Each structure stands twice: as C-alpha cells, then as structure tokens.
Amino acid sequence: MADAEQIVIVGASLAGATAAEALRKDGWSGGIVLIGSEQSLPYERPPLSKGVLLGKDETTSAQLHDQQWYDDNHIDLRLGATVTALDPAAHTVTLDDGSQVSYTKLLIATGSRVRKLDVPGADLPGVHYLRTAEEAQALTDAYAAKPRVVVVGAGWIGLEAASAARERGCEVTVVEPQSTALAGVLGEEVGELFAEFHRQHGVQFRFGAGVEGFEGTDKVTGVRVDGEVIPADLVVVGVGVQPNTELAEAAGIEVATPENGSGIVAGADLQTSVADVYAAGDVVRWDHPLFGRFVRVEHWQNAKDTGASAAKAMLGQDVAHDAIPFFFTDQFDLGMEYAGDVPRGTSYQVVLRGDPKSGAYEAFWLDDDHHVLAGMHVNTWGATDGIRDLIRSGKQVDPARLADSSVDLADV
Ligand SMILES: Cc1cc2nc3c(=O)[nH]c(=O)nc-3n(C[C@H](O)[C@H](O)[C@H](O)COP(=O)(O)OP(=O)(O)OC[C@H]3O[C@@H](n4cnc5c(N)ncnc54)[C@H](O)[C@@H]3O)c2cc1C
C-alpha cells in the first residue's frame, strides 16, 4: 500500500490500540487514525476491578501508552469522538461532529457495553455498573465509606467487585438467579468451588433469586428479591455485556443474532463479510480454524491477539487466527487462568486434579470422547501452557491419569 493510504480503527481500547501498535511494528508507514468515544487515553480494563477497586492503583496506571507514544508513532488518536456511520462503498467513516475520514482498510474494535437491568429503581443513585475508568473510580470512592454492598450477578465482574468490597471491609451479598456462581461459564461443580471460596471470605449469596427492583427515594436503600428487601447502601450490577455491533449492521456487514452468540461475523483472517473491513476484540465472531466453528470471546488476551492478527491481515499477510481463548481472574488470594472454549449446550465431564480444599488445583472439561475442551488452574502457576498443549493436540486423554497430579500434564 502507498504511504498516502490510511488505516482507520474504530474503538480506542485494547483491541484498537494493540492493532495500531502492531501496524507500526509490522512496518506500516501510512496513516493510522484511532477513534474512540471515551475521553481517556486507551487503557486496559482488568485492573479496574482489581487494583483500582482495592484502592491500590490509580485508573491512569491502566493506560497502555502516554500521548507522547501516539505522537512518536504518528498515530492520529481522536478521543471523545464517536463514529456514527460506515460507508464501505465510499470507504469512509462519519464522526459525530459530521466530519468524514476515508480509509484504505478499516478495523472495527467497538468492544462491548454493559447490559442494563430494567427493573423499578434501576436509575437510583448508588446503583453502579463497571466498564469504564470513570465507573471504576466512582465505585472505588464509594467503597471507602464501607457501605453495605449488594452485587447483582455472580459472574466474573460480580465476583471481583464482591471480593474487592470484602477486602475493603464492606458487608457483601451477591444475588444470582442461577443455582451457584459462574454456573454459565464453568458449570455448577466448579462454579460452586468459587462460591464456597467466597463464603469463606464472608460473602453471602442469594442463589436462584432474581432482582425485582431497587428501593429508595434519593438513593438506593435496598434490593427487592423474592418479595423481601435486602438492605443496601450501594449496588453493583454485573449481568454481562453485549457487543457493539450496530454500526456494522447498519453498514450491511454480517452480524450474528443473539441466539447465535452475537458479534460481527468474520473469516479466520478476521475480515468481515465486506471487503477491506476487519473486526477485532470483544466484537468479532470469527471462524476459528482449530475448533472448526465460530467463536467470540469477551476477554483481555483475545483483544490483544485479535488486534495484532487483524493488523497483519490488513497488511496483506496470511492470517488464520487460531489462538486458544484465555482468561484470568484475581479474587482475594486466588489467581486463576482458564484456556479453551466449551460451547454452550455441549455435554462434558469435569476432571479435577489436586484438592480444591488446598486452594491450589486444576479443572478440565472433556467432551464425551475425552478430548480436552478447556482447562483452568487455581494458584498452580505455570500450568496454562500444558493445558493449551492438551487442547491443541486434539488427542484423547485418560481421565484417571489427568486427575492424578503425580502424572506430568505433558505425559497424560
Ligand atoms: C472491569 C473489567 C474487568 C475485566 N477483567 C478481565 C480479566 O480479569 N481478564 C480478562 O481476560 N478480561 C477481563 N475483562 C474483559 C476485557 O477488558 C475486555 O475483553 C476487553 O476490554 C475488550 O477489549 P476491546 O478493545 O475489544 O473492547 P472494549 O474494551 O469494550 O473497548 C471498545 C471501545 O470502543 C469504543 N467505541 C464503541 N463504539 C464506538 C464508536 N462508534 N465510535 C468510537 N468509539 C467507539 C468504546 O467507547 C470503547 O472504548 C474485564 C473487563 C472489565 C470491564
């Protein structure tokens, strides 16, 4: 491509900024325009629900680069700017100030937004969500007064918000309609290990219970659950996210329905259904060459990996993005890493390796033919490479040997 040409990236967060960095590393000397709705320099979100909520880190410490870095790399970073329309035929994007920017290649990295609860009282002051640096700052400031906290949703964000609140001396109750924590992502058996771990740290749970509404006049004072009111000075809602696909859809780019997992549909090279338009991060649902099915992942490593792969693909390199999905979390003194993908509705068997009561163990999800679909470790650092190798090998394993921690993972 000639130097006068430019690559436009919509969404200035982890996937978008990683793509911009990779473009320069891979030798692209043309223009790069990185456009983001948020005012802050691009930042990573995982520290928001960990060091920031614990009151240990500033939100600015999560920034990927300072402004000088964007200047030095000739990246035209436009913050506080929202793209309102894409025109694939004209190769332009339109911004909310009415201006247009033309592109040679376009990357959509618009990420996700939180799902909002639609119940009475949902707009009361004291009801918090957690996606942005501003929201994390507001929550960590509020935790300082040691409020009684009710967390809605026992998923990753809910449990991290609960753990930070406990560590800062708050009373915490988590309300969750499913039968235990993380049931949707880890299944009931392993999810219950997390719930029990939280109980040991003083977190109370109300499982099988949906929130009917929030009480209060000037601010939230309670959460109505099954006709009963749980007193609360502060509520954190963590009921999942949805990908920002509307721009793509309006431009005629193929988007998966919610029943099919949502997201912008892309090939293994992360190119969408429209030429010269790519997608990366939480928003992309791509044809995974190793799994032989479409996958969408709402995690940090995936934003980095797909951002870097999309950059290569936009530069014309051969890309078949086959990274194994990876996720990590920190809660109290628990550090966990998970690799793999268990599609919803798959029948699986869980194999535990090591004693969960010891606080250090592994768990594996096997399909009916004993192939490893996914694995995680809790506080057994260094296990992830072995887990990835087992998945990538596609070989059948003997569950008894897998469960035996005296057998090296490489020999299972
Ligand atoms: C509090 C928190 C903790 C997390 N912890 C972990 C963790 O421990 N481990 C883990 O693996 N993952 C974690 N995640 C998930 C991880 O942060 C996300 O997967 C990652 O941020 C996705 O990056 P992204 O760049 O695809 O999208 P996003 O981070 O969602 O960013 C998309 C950006 O695009 C902007 N945008 C959207 N539409 C437009 C538009 N039309 N014009 C301009 N800009 C637009 C948005 O404002 C946003 O800044 C956490 C997420 C949160 C919120």
Q: Mean pLDDT score, rounded?
A: 97
Largest sheet: 5 strands, parallel
Specify the number of helices.
10
Low-pLDDT parts are none
How many strands? 26
Number of domains: 3
* CATH homologous superfamily descriptor of the largest domain: FAD/NAD(P)-binding domain
Cα gyration radius (Å): 22 Å
Beta-strand fraction estimate: 25-35%
Tell me the overall shape.
globular
Strand order of the largest sheet: 3-2-1-7-19
The CATH architecture of the largest domain can be named as 3-Layer(bba) Sandwich
Termini Cα gap: 48 Å
CATH secondary-structure class of the largest domain: Alpha Beta
Helical content band: 10-25%
Return the structural class.
Answer: alpha/beta
The molecules bound to the chains, other than polymers, are: flavin-adenine dinucleotide
The CATH topology of the largest domain comes to FAD/NAD(P)-binding domain
Organism: Kribbella pratensis
Keywords: Dioxygenase, FAD, Flavoprotein, Oxidoreductase
Pfam family, one: Pyr_redox_2
Domain Reductase C-terminal: 326-411
